[in-house]
Design brief:
Residues 218-238 have a biased composition (Polar residues). Keywords: Disulfide bond, Membrane, Transmembrane, Transmembrane helix. The protein is built from four helices and twelve strands, in the order H-E-E-E-E-E-E-E-E-E-E-H-H-H-E-E. Strands 1-3-9-5-6 form a five-stranded mixed β-sheet, with no helix packed on it. Strands 2, 4, 7, 8 and 10 form a five-stranded antiparallel β-sheet that branches. A two-stranded antiparallel sheet has the order 11-12. The termini are far apart. By secondary structure, the protein is an alpha+beta fold. The protein is rod-shaped. The chain folds into two domains: 18-130, Spermadhesin, CUB domain (Jelly Rolls, Sandwich); 132-189.
């Protein structure tokens, strides 16, 4: 008895923990949606989901072929249509070809089958619908996005050009400064010395100091030498 309870509990865990396949639909073209094994009967205990999402417009779901197990309230096998802010809609049994248009831009299809009485399954065609208002809104938003990208690119290019211009001005200023310093250095090297006396003194040439007695003797010597040929006995000859 205990082993039987453990077995039943394990079966329930396996059934409750089955995975659900999820398929995302975002294309602008028509999409065909099939149940597993279509047109042969779908498997039992299956959960599968299709999620359709877009920013603009609506979705059109066309029931091309639809045969599921029929039940009260579609509590056994069903295809459930879920939309935002609306009540889920379940479909089961046999349905003739018909079209269902969504209210919003996001729709979720959920298929569920129980453990008995499988049927043929279904084939759906999913289309994306956009009216004039949706097209205008899409074009406006795309233009806004493009303008934002262009402004960002222009701003980036402006920063690059401004930085390059600043570097060029800085390099030019440094070159001009170095050129001015070099020209000033050359002018100083070729300029004559204003104070020659100081250069003589610095070079080691020193004139001997002249005294008063030396000046007198130098004067007498010059006087005698200049008048010697013109005098006799100390007198001038005329």
């Amino acid at each position: 008895m205990i082993y039987w309870q453990v077995f039943c509990y394990a079966v329930l865990l396996i059934k409750g923990g089955r995975s659900k396949e999820v398929i995302d639909i975002t294309t602008e073209t028509n999409v065909e949606v099939f149940s597993t094994n279509y047109p042969r009967p779908y498997p039992s205990e299956e959960d599968k989901e299709w999620r359709m999402s877009q920013e603009y417009g609506k979705w059109q779901i066309i029931l091309v072929d639809f045969q599921l197990q029929n039940s009260i309230g579609c509590s056994k096998d069903y295809l459930e249509i879920n939309e935002e802010n609306s009540q889920p809609k379940r479909l089961c049994g046999r349905k003739s070809k018909q079209s269902i248009i969504s209210v919003g831009s996001k729709v979720r299809l959920h298929f569920h089958s129980d453990d008995q009485d499988e049927a043929r399954g279904f084939r759906l065609t999913v289309k994306r619908l956009m009216d004039d208002d949706d097209m205008k809104k899409k074009s406006k938003d795309e233009a806004a996005n493009v303008s934002v990208i262009n402004r960002m690119e222009e701003s980036w290019m402006f920063r690059v050009l401004l930085g390059a211009l600043g570097c060029a001005v800085l390099v030019f200023t440094v070159l001009i400064t170095l050129l001015c310093l070099e020209m000033r250095k050359k002018r100083l090297e070729h300029r004559p010395d204003r104070f020659n006396i100081s250069s003589f003194t610095d070079g080691g040439l020193h004139w001997p100091p002249r005294t008063r007695s030396d000046s007198k003797s130098y004067g007498r010597q010059n006087s005698n030498s200049s008048t010697a040929p013109l005098t006799q006995n100390g007198r001038f000859a005329f």
